[in-house]
Amino acid sequence: MENQIVKLDLKDKKILYELDFNARLPYSQLAKKTGLSKQGAEYKVNNLIKKGIIKGFYPVINVPKLGYIYCRLSLVLRNVTPEIEEEILGYFKQDKQWFWVFSAQGAYDILAVLWAKSITDFKHHVSDLLSRYGQYIKDKNESIATDVIHYQHRYLLGLKETKEIHIKETNEHYTLDEPEKKILQALCEDARMPAVQIAKRAGVSAKAASYKIKKLEQNKIIEGYRITVDHIRLGYTYFKLWINIQYENIEDIRRLHSYVRNNPIVLYIVEGSGLPEDLDVEVMVKNNIELFEFIKDLKLKFPKLIGDYRTFMFIDTKKVRYLPF
Fold it and tell me: What's this model's pTM, rounded to 2 decimal places?
C-alpha cells in the first residue's frame, strides 16, 4: 500500500502548487485561490498529509545573509550494507550544518549540502566524514553554489509561469536576535506552526512574533515557505541533470537559461564553482522518456551549446532544515 501511486484531482494539484513558496497561506486564502470552501481546503490539505503526499512544511531561509556558504558534497559509496548506508545518512542528519540530504541512484548515491562558515569549515566537515566512513566512499565531488534558483513545482499543472527564489552569495549581513533565532527554529520544525505557538517558543507575545516574522520576510531572511512532497507516491521521478556547455556566445547562454526556466518540469538551476558540469538542473518527470525528450529538445534548440551530460536520480529527501544552528 505504501508504494501505491496516489491519484490527485485538479483541486489537489492546485493546492500543492499554491502552497509551494507560500506554505503558511491561511486556509481562507487557499480556498479562494483553489475555488474551494475554507473547510474543503483544510480537508484536502489534511488528506494530502494523511496520504503521505505532503511530508512537511519548511521555510527557505537566506542563510548566506547570516554569513554562511552553500557547500555541496556528492558521494559514490562502495561495499556498503543497507545498515551502513543508513548510518552514513544518520551522520548527516544529526549535524545541523548539513541541511539538505538526499539518497540517490546513478552517478552518485548521496548528495548532502552544508552551510559552512568558510571553505576551511567545509573541508573540516568533509575530513570528519572521511575519518569515520572513508572506507565506504569510492568517489566524491565537492562544490560551492553561488546561486541556487528555486522554481515553483509546476509539473503537476504543466505551467510555464513561475516565481523564483534565489539563495545566492552576498556581501549583505543580517544579525539575528535571540527571539528571531527561536522563531526560525520553530518554523523549521513546521512552517505552518501558528503564530501563538511560535511566540511561546520564542518567549515573546503573539503580536511581537508576527512582527518579527514579517520583518524577517521583508529583509529577505525568509524567502518563502515550501512543502516537501513525496513525488514517488505521485508516480514522478526526480533527476539531477549535469550538462557540459560549449561557451561560444553569452547571449545564447542567457537564452538557454531562459528556455530551461520556462519548462514546467524544471525545479532548480544551480550556479557555482567546482560543479561537475557547466549547467546544473533538477527536474521532475513522469518517466525516463520525458527526461530524454527534454535533453533532446535542448540539443535541437541549442545545437552549438549542449555537449555531454550526466544524470542521477534522487530517491528520497532525508533531511531539509535550512538553519545551521
Answer: 0.92
